Amino acid sequence: MAMESAGRAAAGMLIVLSLTAFIIPTAAGQETVSSPDSGVQDLYLYMGWKDLVELYTRPDTSDERLDGYVRLSPDGEDIELEGVRFRGTSSRELPKKSFNVQFIEPQEFLFGSNDMNLKATYTDPTMMREKVSMDLFHALGQPAPRTKYFDLYINGVYEGLYVHVERVDADLLESNGLNPAGTLVADDFRGHYYLLPEVNRLSVFGYPIDEQDDPEAFLAETMDSRGEPDWGAVRDLVAWVYRTPPGPEFEEGFIERFDEENFIDWLAIHYLIGDLDSFGDDYWLYLDTDNPGAEWKVIPWDKDLTFGSHTRRGTTVNDYFGYESAIASGWDNDLVKKFLETPALRERLNLRMAFLMNEVFTEEYYAGQLDAHEEEIGDRLNVTPAEDAFALHPQNHHGDLGYLAYHTEAMLDFVRLRYRFIERAITPGSGEPYTASAEIPAGPAESTVFFTDPGGWVIATFEVSEVTEPGTITAAVNGTPENPGIDRRWQFDAGDADVSGELTLYYRNDVESCCFPMENWFVSDAAVGDDDYSQWDLEMVQEDGAGNRTALDTYVNPYSNKASADVSLRGTTRFEGVLPEQEEPERNFTWG
Question: What SS3 class is residue 126?
Fold first, then answer.
């Protein structure tokens, strides 16, 4: 605690020194990082230096609002505030802070709300995950928060790109054609475990609510809510989930109680984007309690940890990549668990996921979304600290600057690989791990073939450019512990086939986490390598049936754990990923 207090004191002194130079500067003449033609909205927040120092040095958990005012341009009108505070839970500990800004009057630029949630998205080097994810729900016509990018200036200094995520409240309900006075609650059981520590549950769904002396009062204490919920209706739902086993009875009760299309779309999108946090407290439940025949709907929240981004070694600030999270409930949520264990409901979910992957949220869809977002915000992600930028925060996100193309490619790779994983989950395969086969037909080339093992892990992909002879190619990955780089060897047996194209090898590089296989094939377990062993230096080496080895011109993206090169597959061919500087001299490669 003493070290923590000392760190806060030191941080406070630095902030005081930087802020006393500009208590609240004159707005005239200030330059803006934003382009006037950009869709990103400028937001100028002004605070007295004492309040600002307090904001950044007091305990992160404090929710007391501090004074300030806002302008939409340096010389714009002052907009009065109820106050400013940090927002989030674990994100408050990160060096780039997220904010809740409450206005006295509703604001048009906040979709008519007076509440602003500025999310720093510091853990996301693309700063796109939150917005792209929420747009998926809107594309299906399901209720979800609207999002908008803002450039935040604090006392005239640029402090980063932010995404505003609309608050889930009566305004959101009304904008989605729902009853603004309806019941709106969120599962926050894991945030109140101290009330019943012996229960050791992270979700209210699965808890014997009727054992409480006052079930409704207990729910009001352990769940988040807006307005005046009908706690009796919530109690009935929680009690039904607890007492009903999965199967036909659960199916019948689920259809009676829930908007099935809404729930399945909500669930399907979460699995498509790999959202592992969603079944704890990252969703809201809505019921129009003025309508006797109304059904429960689900509204999503908090989508920064998606598309492969999640906790490793106790922190979300990392560059590790993973897509093999199970199609499961998580967070002790028996509502989702029993849904998945009810065959008829699971089958409808599988059909919906297959349809969305093949017909709606295709690779082309995501590519278009990422291109549009990169055009809108790409330049901002490379802004470096300077006299007029980042006095309070280090930079926009945790990652190295200048690698946005690799990070967005990793998001697309996540989609490609995640979809193969889900397809295997829907239709399980058989055989040995890290073995796969693929048929390459005659006819037009320019297709991508996936070598996916029985567990849904993609061993490799082959982007076909020329087919001299069609056929079936089998692939296997085996250990080569002496290899200086990746301790695996890929072997392709083409039989009678003879094809050319770009081969991509996918390797494992993972460590302790909640949800992904803890397996690493690279010589270092750092996310992209370290000072001695960098994945950027990997080169693919090809070995033919006669034992001749050739180093290939290799493209590497460590954020996707992949290495690619142009090859021809015929007969038996082996490949390895090596670090040339670590290569033993006696191996005598031919560098081609």
Answer: coil
DSSP codes joined into one string, 320-389: -------SS--TT-HHHHHHHTSHHHHHHHHHHHHHIIIIIS-HHHHHHHHHHHHHHHGGGGG---BTTB
Question: Are residues 332 and 258 located together in one domain of the fold?
Answer: yes
The 3 state secondary structure assigned to 258-284 is: ECHHHHHHHHHHHHHCCCCCCCCCCEE
The residue with tokens 């960098």 is: 534
In a domain, 421, yes or no: no
Residue 29: pLDDT band (50, 70, 90) is very low
508 and 481 share one domain: yes
> How far is 387 from 369, CA to CA, in rounded Å?
33
- Using alpha carbons, select from 546, 458, 468, 540 the residue that is nearest to residue 506: 458
Helix (H) or strand (E) holding 491: strand 488-506
Distance CA 509, CA 318 (A): 12
In terms of domains, do 136 and 253 share one?
no
> Is residue 91 located within the same domain as residue 155?
yes
Asked if residues 55 and 392 have their Cβ atoms less than 8 Å apart, the reply is: no
Instruction: Report how far residue 391's alpha carbon sits from residue 18's, in angstroms, rounded to the nearest whole number.
Output: 7
Residues 6 or more apart whose CB falls under 8 angstroms from that of 467 comprise 440, 441, 442, 443, 445, 498, 499
Task: Indicate the residue among 319, 347, 365 that finishes a domain.
Answer: 365
Residue 422 lies in a domain: no
| 64-72 long-range Cβ contacts below 8 angstroms, 24+ apart | 65/102, 69/45, 70/43, 70/44, 70/45, 70/46, 70/101, 70/103, 71/27, 71/44, 71/46, 72/41, 72/42, 72/43, 72/44, 72/109
pLDDT of residue 61: 87
Q: Is 351 left (phi over 0), alpha (psi -120 to 50) or beta?
A: alpha
Q: Please tell me the pTM assigned to this model.
A: 0.92
* Pair 120, 87: CB distance under 8 Å: no
List pLDDT tens digits, range 123-156: 999 999 999 999 999 999 999 999 999 999 999 9
Q: What is the pLDDT of residues 313-353, one digit of tens each?
A: 888 999 999 999 999 998 899 999 999 999 999 999 999 99
Three-state SS sequence of 82-108: EEEEECCCHHHHCCCCCEEEEEEEEEH
DSSP string, 547-577: --EEE---EEETTTTEEEEEEEEEEEEEEEE
CA distance 11 to 54: 11
Question: Is residue 141 domain-shared with residue 254, that is, in the same domain?
Answer: no
- Other beta carbons less than 10 A from residue 280's beta carbon: 20
Q: Which residues pair with 572 in a beta bridge?
A: 493
Do the domain assignments include residue 544? yes
| In a shared domain, residues 138 and 102 | yes
Residues 193, 145: one domain? no
In a domain, 445, yes or no: yes
User: What phi-psi label fits residue 560: left (phi over 0), alpha (psi between -120 and 50 degrees) or beta?
Assistant: alpha
Which structural domain, as residue segments, surrounds residue 481?
428-591
Confidence of residue 32 (pLDDT cuts 50, 70, 90): very low
**CB distance 555 to 534 below 8 Å:** no
